[in-house]
Specification:
single chain, alpha+beta, 6-stranded antiparallel beta sheet, 17 helices, 26 strands, 30% helix, globular
Length: 598
């Protein structure tokens, strides 16, 4: 649901007795991850629950069902089984199927009423809307306040959101110095509550003179943005004061980038010609022959192909069944992936050269990376040496720098989505979840891979670029330790562990102290506190773990990679096949028009 509609349409309340409310609230409190909800959110969930009754013997949840609801038993007794074997009994006050609150899932158990029973039902979509509403209300209030600040009122919403994300809230008591003798000079203070006295002292022997009183909406530090000297100024809290603090350098960067953005638009279409001069616009599917299959997905498969006219010119051809993308959401994601990839120009991102379509399939002709992916490298070699991880992390950072510079969040960073080219350099792929962020700098969909999703994704609080920073920390950990930090066969337990964060975790000795510091800096629970959130990827590049790394050599391609792939020649793949002979299965003709913009 669109953010505006989420705000306009609160969840429907269902009447219930006070006793039932207490039972539901108590059951929610038993779930560890529910402690991350505030009181209003819990009460809203309680109000949204509605009752159902079950007769003895009714099987209302079955293995393989699409789970979209969570339940709390109020009366009766239910049996939970798998493959006909009883697992446990559900008694009144117990909650089950709670994973459905986070996302739709395939039910792994069957639930049967042993006696007549009464349950309270909570819809997953309602939970997600409750979480989104809280975040949207906070964002809306923040924007309303920032628009009331004279210094900021002329800025567009997307810039205000960048400012808002970088603000730190500080609290002071009566008599506290907020600024003393002009220090710190590198901060801009925006007062949101209370009032302060600005004092000036011309010399050490003179008493401080009251210059002015500042209240809600006033700023301190903005004259210094213009170069005025504040070294003789002190600021004293008069009563309780709350202020929002931002680095002046970051503020200048964000607000000063408006003209640059206008003068250098980033939405120009990519040329149909490749870097090697290949004229992709003049090609068709008949221009290629298949060498081998590279991989299969649920609705697609990818093949290594080469030009018939030049066997040394190889590509990866992704084939998608049209019948698999019938819903508007699926079509939107497919088109978004295409448009994002066509707009990206980086040696650290897998290129999309062009697209084709026929009555049954959609095709994406992409750069071929024949060195495998980092997941395969981990599988074959175990944990990697720190220098190797540093190299691959640097490649990923170069890719994220381009993405984030265009307002795009990847949202599915993991070893499987980092490919190695024939040189051994890493390139980012897997843009099915990528999103171009709007003016609120937030995305709301639940997506990504279990173990790599940050808390704000799990809790449907809205997420931005910082989701990629968390995933980068998870990637570093897995590459250094050969296994994910958060993993397991039960997603709910993985999510619960991720919600606790990394601050209190002890890392294995295979991970150095500087690497551990970097990982924990990337994986702060508060997205605004993650390294790289304020000043971008360059702050991560400056971390001590990268001391001495040859960034220029990486960017020029002169740095020797840790692993040189053994790339087979065309003849090693056997005889080429015609493209039309290699489809995994025959697909039906599709005239729905789902490919009209592809």
């Amino acid at each position: 649901m669109e953010p505006k509609l989420v705000l306009q349409n609160p969840p429907i309340s269902h009447s219930k007795s006070e006793e039932s409310k207490r039972l539901i609230e108590s059951a929610l409190a038993e779930n560890e991850w529910m402690k991350y909800l505030d009181r209003d959110q819990v009460l809203c969930l309680v109000d949204s629950a509605y009752p159902i009754t079950l007769k003895q013997g009714v099987c209302f949840v079955q293995e393989g069902d699409n789970g979209t609801q969570a339940y709390i038993a109020e009366e009766g007794k239910l049996e939970v089984s798998r493959a006909g074997q009883r697992l446990h009994i559900i008694e009144p006050g117990m909650m089950f199927e709670e994973l459905a609150l986070i996302h739709n899932h395939t039910c792994s158990t069957t639930v049967t009423a042993l006696v007549n029973s009464r349950l309270w039902v909570m819809e997953g979509q309602v939970f997600q809307r409750v979480m989104q509403r809280r975040s949207l209300i906070t964002i809306t209030q923040s924007l309303q306040f920032l628009r009331s600040v004279p210094l900021l009122c002329v800025l567009p919403d997307d810039v205000l959101m960048k400012v808002s994300d970088a603000l730190e809230e500080s609290h002071y008591s009566d008599g506290d110095y907020i600024i003393q003798n002009g220090s710190p000079e590198d901060k801009l203070f925006i007062f949101s509550q209370g009032q302060v006295k600005v004092l000036e002292k011309q010399s050490a022997t003179e008493e401080s003179m009251l210059v002015c009183v500042l209240t809600r909406g006033d700023c301190l530090g903005d004259p210094a943005l213009q170069g005025d000297d504040m070294r003789s100024m002190s600021v004293l809290a008069s009563g309780d004061v709350t202020c929002l603090v931002i680095d002046k350098e970051f503020f200048k960067k964000v607000t000063g980038s408006l003209d640059d953005a206008r003068n250098n638009p980033s939405n120009k279409a990519r040329s149909k010609n490749g870097e090697d001069g290949t004229a992709f616009g003049e090609m068709s599917l008949s221009s290629f022959q298949v060498l081998c299959n590279l991989g299969e997905g649920q609705y697609s498969h990818t093949q290594l192909v080469h030009l018939k006219s030049d066997p040394s010119c190889k590509f990866a051809l992704k084939t998608i069944r049209k019948q698999a993308i019938q819903s508007p959401g699926q079509r939107e994601r497919m088109l978004s992936e295409k448009h994002i990839l066509m707009d990206l120009h980086s040696p650290f991102i897998v290129r999309l050269h062009c697209t084709f379509k026929d009555p049954r399939f959609l095709y994406m002709l992409m750069e071929a990376c024949e060195g495998g992916d980092l997941w395969v490298l981990l599988r074959d070699r175990g944990s990697l040496e720190e220098d190797a991880v540093r190299f691959y992390a640097a490649c990923v950072l170069e890719a994220l720098s381009v993405l984030h510079g265009k307002g795009i969040v990847h949202r599915d960073l993991k070893p499987e989505n980092v490919l190695l080219d024939q040189r051994g350099y890493a390139k980012l792929t897997g843009f099915g979840c990528a999103k171009k962020l709007g003016s609120l700098h937030r995305a709301w969909s639940f997506c990504g891979s279990v173990g790599y999703q940050p808390p704000e994704v799990i809790l449907h609080q809205g997420h931005g670029m910082s989701a990629d920073l968390w995933a980068l920390g998870m990637l570093l950990y897995e590459l250094l330790n050969s296994s994910p930090l958060f993993s397991g066969s039960e997603p709910l337990k993985v999510y619960t562990a991720a919600l606790k964060g990394t601050d209190e975790l002890e890392f294995p000795k295979t991970i150095s102290r500087t690497a551990a510091h970097l990982i924990k800096s990337l994986c702060r629970l508060n997205p605004t506190e993650r390294l790289g959130q304020r000043n971008g990827v360059k702050d991560i590049c400056k971390h001590m773990w990268f001391d001495g790394f040859d960034w220029e050599g990486l960017q020029k391609g002169t740095l020797t990679p840790p692993v040189i792939p053994n790339v087979p020649s065309v003849s090693d793949h056997g005889g080429p096949a015609l493209l039309e002979e290699t489809h995994i299965e025959e697909a039906s003709l599709d005239d729905s028009g789902c490919d009209i913009d592809f």
